[in-house]
Amino acid sequence: MNGTNNKNVELLEKENQLLREIIDRIHEPVSVSTKEGVIVLYNSESEKSEGMKRENVLGKHERDIYPDTNGKGFFDQVTKKVIETGRPLIEHHCKYRLDNERLIEIFIDSYPFFYQGNLEAVYNIGPNVKQGNVFVSRSLELQRKVNRENNTKTAIYHNGTYYSLQDIVGRSEKISKAVLLARKIAGRTSPILIYGETGTGKELFAQGIHNASLFAEGSFIAVNCAAIPETLLEGLIFGTSKGAFTGAIETPGLFEQAEEGTLFLDEIDSMPISLQAKLLRVLQDKVVRRIGGKQQKPINCRIISATNMDPFEAVKKQRMREDLFYRLATVTLGVPPLRERKEDIALLVQFFIDKYNRLFGLYVGGCSEQLTKMFEEYHWPGNVRELENTIESAINCIEVGEKELNLRHVPPYIKERFGNPGVDVFIPYKEGKLHAILMAVEKRVIKNCLDKNGGNVTKTAEELGVLRQALHYRIRKFGLYQK
């Protein structure tokens, strides 16, 4: 009999653990309080929503966690009402403050729990209103991903984009954090400034954010501010009115074309300062007037901008107005260079091989061990774009029937960028203090790279991934003056 009882207890414990784990995976805050108001369950989504740890919440009274201010605490607005009436509150709008004075606003469903006819507890389910857009955005993004997978004839979305955040390849910590931040900010409406080196995938992130946002049904309109002359750029962005200049016609600008969508201003630091002032006025007033026009039109679009350099450096060098920077950079998103996420190189290599297999009708399986090692040791100044171009170039050189990319498929000019794999840039190990050994290795690496680049400091700094000023310091430090 005891064996049966023990088995039943074990089954109940197992079932209880399973239910708690399921509740912890639900993407909505769930909490349970006793009829006295003591919190006995608080899932992980509740932690995220309210910014508190469950160990600091469980076992405490709601009035201790949510201070009562003239009957406006959570206990009085929700739990007490359910206990007194014995009826659920559905989509109940509730505002309350945490102990740190942070205001929480929710639409909550609260239900009474009866056991053997007695009301014993109250359980609550309901999202934080300010996080609601995140759930909506994520759902929209997943739906668009399904739609694209079901329609393999085209890789382009109806809004003019090619990519979603799902398409970003990589599992490294830095790229994962960047994607996570992109998902968080996609559901809001604040302007975003993306910064990162050339070839890191800034527009991919911009398109991904657009497709994960509430603006996704609108158009994604992109313009490279460095590629268009100032005289044309102004009319392109703001639009023109008939008669504004000889041959001018009524033309909507990019702000109007991006209505209820996203306007992506790439290389914003290349926009002339005079034009930046006009852009700032539009962003401040939320209205645009075409060149030569008199009518002002309200704008309703999300602004995402991008720069290839540190935005603070752009402001310091007066390539970007400081007031425009603060208007555009409500949220900033840094895209890491490939040399800082080398653990993703193998994934990216295979991704591009698969891509060009489909395009060229080939069946290349992967890379040789030697070529993969070279890829992982190279610093990739052109980042992911350079890696893709290298893979495409190599695949064009492969013979019919070959199943593996190797060094002979890489064109000579690309091999030169990799350096001579037969030359060891490191010194042989010798006894001594670790600091002295590392200094000798650093000196040898810098000397080899300087020699390869004919003493060109700018190119050497770019290849080594250091600032030019930092390289000059090391050259002086090691006495590596070029003759």
How would you describe this structure to a colleague?
This protein is α/β, with parallel strands linked by helices and 483 residues long. The chain folds into 4 domains: 19-127, Beta-Lactamase (2-Layer Sandwich), CATH 3.30.450.20; 136-336, P-loop containing nucleotide triphosphate hydrolases (Rossmann fold), CATH 3.40.50; 342-418, Helicase, Ruva Protein, domain 3, CATH 1.10.8.60; 434-478, Orthogonal Bundle (Arc Repressor Mutant, subunit A). Helices cover 45% and strands 16% of the residues. It is built from 19 helices and 16 strands. The chain has helices spanning 2-25, 44-50, 62-65, 74-85, 129-150, 173-186, 202-211, 230-238, 254-257, 273-285, 311-316, 322-328, 345-360, 369-377, 383-396, 412-418, 434-452, 457-464, 468-478, and strands spanning 30-34, 39-42, 89-97, 103-115, 118-125, 192-195, 220-224, 239-240, 251-252, 262-266, 287-289, 296-298, 302-307, 331-334, 366-367, 404-405. Strands 2-1-5-4-3 form a 5-stranded antiparallel sheet, with helices on one face. The protein has a 5-stranded parallel sheet with strand order 7-10-13-6-14. A two-stranded antiparallel ribbon has the order 8-9. It is globular, with a radius of gyration of 29 Å. Residues 147-155 and 420-429 have low confidence and may be disordered.
